[in-house]
Amino acid sequence: MGCDGNNATPPSPAIAPGAGEIDPRRVAEKLVSRFGEGGMDPRVRDVTPAFDAPFFQAGLAGYSDAAMRIIARRHGCPYCVTEALLDRTLLAGGRGFAKADLGEIEDNIPGGDEDRPLAGQIMGSEPAEMAAAAIKMVEQGARRPAEYRDLVAEMGHGARPRDEETQRRRDEVVEAGPTARASAAHSVSASLDLSVSSDRSFAAIDVNLACPVKKIAKKSRGGHWLTQPEGAIRILEAVREATPADIAVTVKMRRAYDETDEMRENFLRIFDAAYDIGCAWVTVHGRTVTQKYMGPSRWDPIRELVRRNPERVIFGSGDVWNVSEIFRMLDYCSSSWRGGLPAHPPTGLAGVSVARGCIGNPWIFRQARDILAGRAPQAPSIEQQRDVLLQHFTLAMDVNRLWVRGEGEAREERAERHTARTMRKFAIKFAEHHPETLAVRKRFIACKTMQEWRGVLEEHYMSEVTAS
Ligand SMILES: Cc1cc2nc3c(=O)[nH]c(=O)nc-3n(C[C@H](O)[C@H](O)[C@H](O)COP(=O)(O)O)c2cc1C
C-alpha cells in the first residue's frame, strides 16, 4: 500500500466560497504584471531558478516516477516531486525490504537532465534515519550501504552530520563526479538518459508530514507527526542540518491531523518551526489527515495562513482538477493581492501543487502556460494524445529496464509486462480525453505488450476526431 490510502473518491470542489467566479485569465494577467513572464514568485526563483511558473507536479505514490515526470515537463511543468520514499527503504537500498510499503527506490531515480529541477521526498520516524536518508538521496547512494547505516548510528548518538570527517567524505563523493554516482544510480538507458550528471540530482529534499497511511509499529510518520509536533520538528532539524546548504529543504503538510483546536495548534507549531529551521517553503494540503483523500479540500485555511504570513513562501494543494483551478487557487489564497499591494515583497500564495488533476492529463501544464501567455488553452488533439501515450509507455519501459532482473530478452519481456500492467492506471485517465472513452479504456487495460499498446493507438488514435 502506498501513500494513497483511499483515493477512489470522485473529484470534489474545494471549499472556497466565491472561487468559482474567479477568471483564470485575469489572474494570469495579474501574475505576469507583478512578476513578469511565467508569473512566478521571485522568492521561489531565488531558491530554484528554473522553477519559473506557479505550479508543479505533486508527489503521487505509484504514479510520479521519472516517466510521468518527464511527460509533465515536456508539457511545461517547471518542477516535480518524487513520490514519498520511506527512509528505511532508502537506507536498506532495494526491493527486498520487507516493509517497503511506500514508493520504490527505482521509481524515484532522477530521469537525467530532462528531469530537473526535482525534489526528492522522504518520510520516516527517526530523525537520524531521515537525515541519513536525505544524505543518501542527495548523493544518489554513492557510499556503501553500511556507511549510511553508520551515519544513522553516528547521528543517533548526537554527532552532527556536518562533523569534519563526515563533511570531508561527503565532499569527496560529490567531487567524484558523474561516474561514481552514476554507477550507484544504476543508470543505463537506450532512449532516455537517466545518468546522474555532475550537477546535483535533487534541487530539494521534501519532508513528508502529510501521508495518511497508518503508523508502523506505533511509530509516527507522514501526517501522523501532526499529533506530535516536537517529534516532527526534530525531524525537520535533522534533515535541514544533514542536507547541504545549497539544496533546499521543503515540507509537505496537511492543514491539521483532525478538526480539533489542539491539532490546529500543532500544525501552526510545526509550520512556524519549519521556517525558523531554514526550510524554504511548506506545501499545505487543505484536507486533514483523518480525511485521507475523501471530501473537499479547504482552501480557506490556506488563504488565512498566507494572509498571516506574507513573508513566507507557501504552496497550496487539494482539489486542483483542471487548469482553471490552478489559477483560482492562486487567486483565492492570495486575498492580499486585492489590496493592490506592491510587487515586492510578494505576499500571495507562491504556487499550486497539481496532483490527481494531472494523472493522464499532462496537458494541464501546457494549458496553464497558455493562459499565462494570454492564449486560449486547448484540449489535446487525438494526435497529441497518441504521441503522449506512446512516449509514456516508452519512458516507463526505460525506467523499468533499470531494475527488472534477468538478461537480454527475458529482461526485456519482464520490463514490458510490468510496464503494460502499471500503465493501466494511467490509461484509464488518458482515455477520458478520447471520445470513445469506455472502448479505449477496455483495450488499454487488456494490453500485455508494447505491440498491443501500439495496436490500440493505431486503431483508435489515427483519425483526427475532435477530442473531448
Ligand atoms: C495516489 C496518491 C498518491 C499520493 N502520494 C503522495 C506522495 O507520495 N507524496 C505526497 O506529498 N503526496 C502524495 N499524495 C497527495 C497529493 O500530492 C495531493 O496533496 C493530494 O492528492 C491533494 O491534491 P488533489 O486533491 O488535487 O489530488 C498522493 C495522493 C494520491 C491520490
Task: Characterize this entry briefly.
With 468 residues, the chain is of the alpha/beta class. Helix content is 43%, strand content 9%.
Notes on the protein architecture:
By secondary structure, the chain is of the alpha/beta class. The chain folds into two domains: 19-372, Aldolase class I (TIM Barrel), CATH 3.20.20.70; 382-460. The chain is 43% helix and 9% strand. The protein contains 17 helices and nine strands. It has helices at residues 24-35, 42-47, 66-74, 87-92, 127-139, 145-156, 164-175, 177-184, 229-242, 261-277, 300-308, 323-332, 363-372, 382-401, 408-430, 437-445, 450-460, and strands at residues 55-57, 80-81, 85-86, 118-123, 204-209, 248-256, 282-288, 314-317, 351-354. Strands 1, 2, 3, 4, 5, 6, 7, 8 and 9 form a nine-stranded parallel sheet that branches. α4 (87-92) links the parallel β3 (85-86) and β4 (118-123). Bound molecules: flavin mononucleotide (FMN). Flavin mononucleotide binds at residues 2-4, 7, 58-62, 83-84, 121, 208, 210, 252, 285, 293, 297, 317-320, 353, 355-357.
